[in-house]
Amino acid sequence: MMSQRMSQRNPELVLKRRPFGSWLLGPADQSTKRLRIRLHLLLTVFSIGTNLIGAFVTFVLAVFVLPGPSLVDQLQLIDAIVIPAYFLFAMGVCYVWSSRLTKRVTRWIDLERSATRREQIATLQLPLRLTLIEVLLWFGAAVLFTVMTVVLQPENALRVALTVIDGMIITSAVSYLLTEFALRPIAARALVDSPPPRRLLAAGLKARTVFFWAVGSGVPVAGLMLAAVLALIEGDVTSTRLSVVILALGIVALGNGCLLTWLSARSVVAPVRSVRDALNLIGEGRLDVSIPVFDGTELGSLQAGFNRMADGLRERERIRDLFGRYVGPDVVQEALTSDSLGGEERYAAVLFVDLVGSTELAAQRPPAEVVQLLNRFFAIVVAEVDRQGGFVNKFAGDAVLAVFGAPAELVDPAGSALTAGRELSRRLADELPEATAGIGVTAGIVVAGTVGDVRRHEYTVIGDPVNEAARLSDLAKTAPGRLIASMTAVAESAPAEAEHWHPGDEITVRGRSTPTHLAVPRQL
User: Fold this and answer.
1) How far is 491 from 44, CA to CA, in rounded Å?
2) Is the pTM above the cut of 0.85?
3) Sequential DSSP letters for 420-467
4) In terms of C-beta density within 10 A (0-12 exposed, 13-18 middle, 19 or more buried), how is residue 82 classed?
5) How much is the average pLDDT of 250-268?
6) Angle, nearest 10°, between helix axes 126-152 and 32-60?
7) Contacts of 446 (CB under 8 A, 6+ apart)
8) Three-state DSSP class for residue 30
9) What is the tens place of the pLDDT at every residue in 451-476?
10) Is the pLDDT score of 68 beyond 70?
């Protein structure tokens, strides 16, 4: 519950501190040396601990619990020597064998390279291979102690053999889960470039769940049945003795079933929880999320699938951001909601800015310097248009066409365009004194929408106000303040903006049949 509450409070912190589901496994970016030391300690402690407890429980059940002739009175000195001696021998063999196998299978880590497909498979199969070493040593114990019992106490041979085999199955199952847990950081490094190989998904969660159910519940129940069989064979087992046997085996069955179920559940929950925490971050807009893939079953494919999804979201967001830099975020939204050609009539204000003497600049200065100057010019224009809520529709060489009121509607498009024109006039004079630009502003009905072909779209505005603004910018190049607007735009703007302008002359600009009543700012 504590970890769940932590995850809900701060999933980013959980993923950073416990990327593999437990603080015991360390961070994802730990050094190879630290990883080796941590892995060695965990595998050693888990192996010795599980086998010591398993051997102790097996010994107690065989000697003191299960019905049959008492082994306590028949234990001889050789038993007291052979049993601990074999345990120490088995632990030594297991330690050396497991260490060498682990180092050989994971040598690609020390070489600081990615695992090949074959090395991936070997790494993900390592928990099973390490567990098989313990199974082999337990089976050796079963054979050795059964033979000794046949020689010394033949009537107890079946009890000893079955008890050791049951202990082998249960202990090995617990050891497998703990080994798989300890090897998660290694598995994550093996799977960093690709999902789990398909051949490892053949058994998958279904077979694993059935197996651990059988070990956690089936084997203990089989032990109870064995006790009943031995009691029937013995014949003279008292009810008290039988009650003690059932009680002891019930405790072992409950403890073993609980432990195996808990470990198995954690092995399933850990990768699912990592995906859940990462999804929470994605929901908060954090697209820079990636989780380690440390499971060789379908859950590993789930983790890898999340990483692919996050990569796709990052790529989509990058493309959307890049697309927005070219056409504007409002046009991106328009394109996402409708991809049909055509447009609609809108009332909008148009601002046109054109550099003065750009041809001479290109002839007198190096191309790189001209591009630098244009970028500074465009940066000022874009910043001011954005600040007033407008949309830079296109860059036409050394000119900029900006629209206010399309595609996003504005409360006062004319006032916003006029404010942007005044601020641009001031900023260009202060921040770009080596170049001058003519600024024209007007307003009216335009057609705003997508034009082009089904294979290539462009969002634009078409109408008389666009042509008028371009002509006004030409006039403004020779005007005192380099800024001219139409009285049509001033009349449609809010009073707070209109008071900054006063009427000028009427003039018929090139390409229009009707005159334009000019307006110029009161203070320049």
Assistant:
1) 85
2) no
3) HHHHHHHHHHHH-TT--EEEEEEEEEEEEEEEEETTEEEEEEESHHHH
4) middle
5) 81
6) 30
7) 345, 346, 347, 348, 350, 403, 406, 461, 462, 463, 465, 466
8) coil
9) 776 666 777 888 899 999 999 999 99
10) no
